[in-house]
Specification:
- The strands form three sheets. A nine-stranded antiparallel beta sheet has the order 3-6-8-7-12-13-11-10-9, with helices on both faces. A four-stranded antiparallel beta sheet has the order 2-1-5-4, with no helix packed on it.
- It folds into two domains: 137 residues, HIT family, subunit A (2-Layer Sandwich); 147 residues, HIT family, subunit A.
- Helices cover 28% and strands 21% of the residues.
- The longest helix has 21 residues.
- The protein has seven helices and 15 strands.
- By secondary structure, it is of the alpha+beta class.
């Protein structure tokens, strides 16, 4: 029939689809020594990408009740806070990868995905968050973060440990129970590596800028002990916050009891403020950067009530974020929340 085009007409020939196509692709990859679970080096950027094809089959929503509630699949016994291995890990334990493990073919390079992936449960209660479990509850989470970070860094195959949380469906969370995760990498990832490079060249940026933030006050949101929460001068996210100590401390395990209490206080305060800001639970990304001067990033995706800010192609393609909310206005709104 004229005026109609069949599948693939006028363009590239489509390959097999569905389960048969996936099986054929897996077989073809295996023929080239690829398992679908490896670290692959991007030849354009020189950065590693974790290929985790098995995660495509993980359930988006659990069936049969919450696996994180006491008595559930991942929490058979009562607990206050709990950490365990992720059933769908991006990284796997094993001996450090050496030259013999490095595979190169046709200009492409890949390694085994050495490392670890863990889940951290914040509370046995199903409903809650860092903003509702109380400062004492958050302190227990901070202590577990420190404990797991130190234990993982003691393993020879691990070079960097990233504690993080994805809260809310908007950022990909599939279980409402309050929890976060830990990834242990066999290399220092690009973002903390860049932060370390800046510090090596120009001196610690937080030691230099935190006193100025405290003196100016226009972006400060909260203070506890010798810790401060504030909207960064060049925040890439609407209502993004940084939580950092005034003192130069490289890691969670370097914090004494008073410092951990102060960190817990500000994390509790920050999440509670987020939830009051738009009068609903605020989705956010959270990650902890040890290494130079310990700090915690919080990055909500919302720019207004019910309005999500999406990272667009101009930002991804350039590596330059555009923030529609001025940091000073964000800090004022968060102080009022």
């Amino acid at each position: 029939m004229t005026g109609e085009a069949g599948p693939g007409a006028g363009g590239a020939q489509a390959g097999p689809t569905g389960a048969a196509g996936a099986a054929g692709a897996a077989e073809a990859a295996e023929a080239h020594g690829l398992s679908g679970h490896e670290l692959r080096l991007d030849p354009l950027t020189g950065e590693w990408v974790a290929i985790v094809a098995r995660r495509q089959d993980r359930p988006n929503l659990p069936s049969g009740g919450c696996p994180f509630c006491v008595g559930g699949l991942e929490a058979p016994e009562p607990y206050t806070v709990r950490a365990f291995e992720n059933r769908w890990p991006a990284f796997l334990p094993g001996p450090p990868a050496g030259a013999a493990d490095r595979r190169t073919q046709g200009g492409f390079t890949w390694w085994p995905p050495r490392g670890a992936a863990e889940v951290v449960l914040y509370s046995p209660g199903h409903d809650g968050s860092l903003g509702t479990i109380g400062v004492e509850g958050v302190r227990a989470v901070v202590d577990l973060w420190a404990e797991r970070t130190e234990a993982l860094m003691g393993r020879p195959e691990i070079e960097y440990v990233l504690v993080f949380e994805n809260r809310g469906e908007e950022v990909g969370a599939t279980i409402d129970h309050p929890h976060g995760q830990i990834y242990a990498f066999p290399f220092v990832p690009p973002v903390p590596r860049r932060e370390a490079a800046v510090a090596a060249t120009d001196g610690c940026p937080l030691c230099r800028t935190v006193p100025h933030e405290l003196a100016a006050g226009i972006r400060v949101v909260g203070r506890a002990g010798r810790w401060v929460s504030y909207v960064p001068f060049a925040s890439g996210y609407p209502y993004g916050m940084l939580v950092a100590p005034e003192d130069h401390r490289p890691s969670l395990s370097d914090l004494d009891g008073a410092a951990r209490d102060a960190l817990a206080t500000l994390l509790h305060d920050a999440v509670a403020r987020y939830d009051r800001l738009f009068d609903r639970p605020m989705p956010y990304l959270l990650w902890v950067h040890p290494g130079v001067h310990l700090h915690v990033h919080l990055a909500p995706p919302m720019r207004a009530p019910g309005v999500q800010r999406f990272v667009a192609s101009g930002e991804v393609g350039s590596g330059t974020l555009s923030n529609p909310v001025a940091p000073e206005a964000a800090a004022e709104a968060l102080r009022r929340a």
